[in-house]
């Protein structure tokens, strides 16, 4: 009974900061770009509060 509700809730939730950071890092095409993106993440690119 609750399984469909859980699946719906998972589908509708926003990605966490960690998930967004990992997705951003995984999109790097080479090692240089990966290092650049890692520095951006370390500087808090995804952790800024509005």
Quick overview:
By secondary structure, the protein is an all-alpha fold.
Tell me what the structure shows.
- With 50 residues, the protein is mainly α.
- The protein has one domain (14-50).
- It contains three helices and no strands.
- It has helices spanning 3-12, 17-26, 31-42.
- Helix 2 runs antiparallel to helix 3.
- The mean pLDDT is 89.
SSE layout and pairings?
Layout: H1 3-12, H2 17-26, H3 31-42
Helix pairs in contact: 2-3
Strand content: under 5%
Uncertain regions spanning at least 5 consecutive residues: none
- How much helicity do the residues have? 55-70%
H/I helix tally: 3
**SSE pattern, N- to C-terminal:** HHH
Overall domain count = 1
Rg over CA atoms, rounded to whole Å, is 15 Å
How does the major sheet shape up? none
Question: Rough shape?
Answer: elongated
- SSE class: mainly alpha
What's the rounded overall pLDDT mean? 89
Total strand count, please?
0
Distance linking N and C termini? 38 Å
Pfam families: DUF3563
Protein name: DUF3563 domain-containing protein
Which terms would index this structure?
DUF3563 domain-containing protein; 3 helices; mainly alpha; DUF3563; 50 residues
């Amino acid at each position: 009974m609750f399984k469909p509700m859980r699946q719906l809730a998972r589908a509708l939730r926003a990605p966490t900061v960690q998930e967004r950071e990992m997705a951003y890092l995984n999109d790097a095409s080479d090692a240089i770009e990966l290092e650049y993106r890692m520095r951006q993440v370390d500087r808090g690119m995804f952790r800024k509060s509005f």
